[in-house]
Amino acid sequence: MKRILTYALALTFALGASAQKTISLQGADETVRLWDNTTAKYSNHQTKDEQWRKGKKNVMINTSSCELYIYKADPAKNTGIAICYYPGGGFTGLHLSVSTAKWYASQGITAVLVKYRLPNGYKEAMLEDAFGAVRYIRTRTDLGVDPNKVGVTGSSAGGCLTALVSNMMPDEEKPAFAIPLYGSMLRTEFYTGNKANYALLGKDFTWQDAVDMSSNNMVTPKTSPTLLLLCDDDRVVEPYSSLVYYEALVRHGVKCSMHIFPEGGHSLKKAMKEQQELTIDWLKWLGLYNTK
Fold first, then answer.
1. CB-side exposure of 82: number of CA atoms within 13 Å?
2. What domains does the chain contain, in order, with CATH numbers?
3. pLDDT class for 3, splitting at 50, 70, 90?
4. Is residue 6 scored above 60 in pLDDT?
5. Residue 191: partners with Cβ closer than 8 Å, 6 or more residues away
6. Cβ 31 vs Cβ 69: under 8 Å
7. Residue whose C-alpha is closest to residue 275's, from 259, 253, 263
8. Distance of CA 143 to the CA centre of its chain
9. What would the 3-class secondary structure string for the chain be?
10. Considering only CA atoms, which of 124, 105, 126 is closest in space to residue 115?
11. What pLDDT is recorded for position 194?
12. What is the pLDDT of residues 71-86, one digit of tens each?
């Protein structure tokens, strides 16, 4: 009887999860749905419907499905590069930067804006989505994507996820490059009272959990080549976070560069043109950016 009851409860949960409302971003050249909590290996155990925060269609919350919004590279400039962009939002929302994706596409780079399942205390689902995006876009040679030229980027919490992907994927699958933008690399920073930590690690996380999920402690010589971009007056994520990560990259012999703009806060909007120029120059330095 106990076994039957357990199965019934599990079935009820599965049906409830599958009935959740999901939302999708409109306007991409192509949208690919990878999975949701009922079909993926891991779940973030989110039971609420997906929503747009405050009704504005640029920030998603309560995500329980993974979708890829693909912006195709300008065919006249296609470099073979593809980049997966992980939105930031403190691990409680996804700030979808469509303008950034379109800019990459205009430069001959296939851009993938990744709607990932917010961790909700279960980081495995988010990592599954982040890894899955890289693996999927490598298969899209029909878009002119070179599987050896797939990289990752993201801002704030998405910058943290960018660093995690460039360290945690198997060595043979690691991205060709990583560009964390003002990322929160140290989970030990603002250890208590940090809502992002609770969202990522769960309400009962320990100091050791925070240490283990700090990217600077994951770096090896196999970590993806990394470009760090941030502002000196950022008071949401202190520049110290990226400095410590940069030191770890240098110490392990990873190809890396860092540029700190004097002002701009927790954003790069004030230095958008300079940021874009630095990005293209760095990809050229890596030998990846070659237009037709």
1. 27
2. 23-285 (3.40.50.1820)
3. very low
4. no
5. 197, 207, 210
6. yes
7. 259
8. 21
9. CHHHHHHHHHHHHHHHHHCCCCCCCCCCCEEEEEEECCCCCCCCCCCCCCEEHHHCCCEEECCCEEEEEEECCCCCCCCCCEEEEECCCCCCCEECCHHHHHHHHHCCCEEEEEECCCCCCCHHHHHHHHHHHHHHHCCCHHHCCCHHHEEEEEECHHHHHHHHHHHHCCHHHCCCCEEEECCCCCCCCCCCCCHHHHHHHCCCCCHHHHHHCCHHHCCCCCCCCEEEEEECCCCCCCCHHHHHHHHHHHHCCCCEEEEEECCCCCCCHHHHHHHHHHHHHHHHHCCCCCCC
10. 126
11. 78
12. 999 999 999 999 999 9
At 278, list the tokens: 């630095």
Task: Read off the tokens for 183.
Answer: 């990322």
User: Quick count: other Cβ atoms within 10 Å of Cβ 270?
Assistant: 14
